[in-house]
Write a structure and sequence with these properties.
This protein is α/β, with parallel strands linked by helices. The strands form 2 sheets. An 8-stranded mixed β-sheet has the order 1-2-4-3-5-6-9-10, with helices on both faces. Strands 7-8 form a two-stranded antiparallel sheet. The radius of gyration is 21 Å and the shape is globular.
């Protein structure tokens, strides 16, 4: 007889809609605390030379990590931080080549993802646990637990990119270089400067109302909304996990839509952060107001022929993703997006106002990725202000948002060439 977890895993792996799984059963299968530990991956999921194991007591977590190049003690370390909606498994194609170059390659399931436990999936959780400062502590605690006082480079993709950036900004003594992928880092939030002697508004004077980009997007024809705002809503998790088309099909369409396989991904720099300019982004970034992400990506579901031709993410590989998210849901992953709109957490980051990344830095993205352009001016701010030793900005041919999966050989080459000796 199948256990509850085995039932959920098998249903997700078969591509069944999680809507057919009773909510009570699905919730009971979610691993939220370290009282219900998960095993590492079994045989057949990864090459035998990539190790899957659990590391206990890491900043309150039991962290699931993938490792390559661990057989030889004393190798310099590379830390790989994945994005959304990915687990550590998304680094599978670059780990062995980087290990062959002489490194101990470490890829954890980040807080809120995969087989790492000790985090809470409740919507009303303390968001500070998922804030960027605690994410940096997660990374620092992990490499410390593995016996490293220095990491040759920290590499982050998508939402892992800002975490990697903050690692190198806050602890440059540990994280000796940084590679940011797909999401440029414009620098810490600033504090108002030289305002003490400026004229203050008199009593009763009119203040200019703050520009609300959400209201502006909603006023467009047709009305739109920003995907990060959608990710903060209570219904986002259920909309994706219980997608009408099924979780597996939802993920297939989502990955296809943001890849170079979707030929309409031809990005360009936006002129300003206005509703009119943002509306030029594909709907996976600026969604139709009345739709969830499941409905947004459904029309872009690739054909059976396109799926069969997708060598960078085969059906067997995608089943690893759908099995994991079928078990955990997306809420743990979505918590970090909510932190971006928490005024207390964003104010905390002003402590680092005007601090720069002073270790060697590099940026990599797919040439067909809109990610680098969704925040106008972010690339220039990263290159000219945030990083004092920016050694390269690389846009990779034949890749969309999932650059390390779509073009792993080129990404491996760029990282290996960049890492300071």
């Amino acid at each position: 007889m199948l256990s509850r977890r085995e039932f959920v895993l098998s249903a997700a792996a078969a591509g069944l809609s999680s809507a057919i799984i009773p909510q009570r059963l699905a919730h009971a299968a979610i691993v939220r605390t370290d009282n219900d530990k998960l095993s590492p991956y079994g045989k057949g999921i990864l090459p035998s030379t990539i190790r899957s194991r659990m590391i206990s007591n890491v900043n309150g977590l039991d962290v699931h990590v993938l490792e390559a190049g661990f057989e030889v003690a004393g190798r310099p370390a590379i830390l790989l931080l994945h994005g959304f909606p990915e687990p550590a498994y998304s680094w599978r194609k670059v780990m062995l080549p980087l290990a062959a170059a002489g490194y101990h390659v470490i890829a954890p399931d980040r807080r809120g993802y995969g087989r790492t436990t000790g985090w809470d999936d409740a919507y009303d959780v303390d968001l500070g646990l998922f804030g960027v400062l605690n994410m940096v502590t997660d990374a620092l605690a992990l490499v410390t637990a593995l016996g490293y006082r220095r990491v040759s480079t920290v590499v982050g993709h998508d939402f892992g990119a800002p975490v990697a950036a903050w690692c190198s900004l806050i602890r440059p003594d540990v994280f000796r270089s940084v590679v940011m992928m797909s999401a440029p880092f414009p620098g810490p939030p600033t504090l108002p400067f030289n305002t003490a002697d400026q004229a203050q508004p008199t009593h009763g004077s009119e203040r200019q109302p703050a520009v609300n980009i959400d209201d502006q997007l909603a006023a467009l024809d047709p009305p739109r909304k920003y995907y990060m705002r959608y990710f903060t809503t209570p219904g986002a998790n259920a909309n994706m996990q219980s997608a009408a088309q099924g979780l597996h099909a939802f993920l297939r369409a989502y990955f296809h839509y943001k890849s170079a396989d979707w030929k309409q991904n031809q990005p360009f720099a936006l002129k300003a952060r206005t509703a009119e300019e943002l509306s030029k982004l594909p709907t996976y970034y600026v969604m139709n107001l009345g739709e969830g992400m499941a409905e947004t990506v459904a029309p872009e579901m690739p054909s059976a022929k396109q799926i069969a031709a997708c060598k960078w993410l085969t059906e067997e590989e995608l089943r690893v993703y759908s099995a994991e998210y079928g078990r955990t849901g997306f809420q743990g992953a979505l918590q970090a997006y909510r932190c971006n709109f928490d005024s207390k957490l964003t104010a905390e980051l002003q402590l680092f106002s005007n601090r720069t990344i002073d270790v060697p830095a590099c940026f990599i993205a797919g040439k067909n990725d809109w990610g680098p352009y969704q925040t106008p001016g972010a690339i220039d701010a990263m290159r000219n202000n945030a990083c004092t030793r920016m050694l390269g900005i690389h846009m990779v041919d034949g890749a969309g948002h999932w650059v390390q999966q779509e073009q792993p050989n080129k990404v491996t080459e760029l990282i290996a060439q960049f890492i300071p000796t």
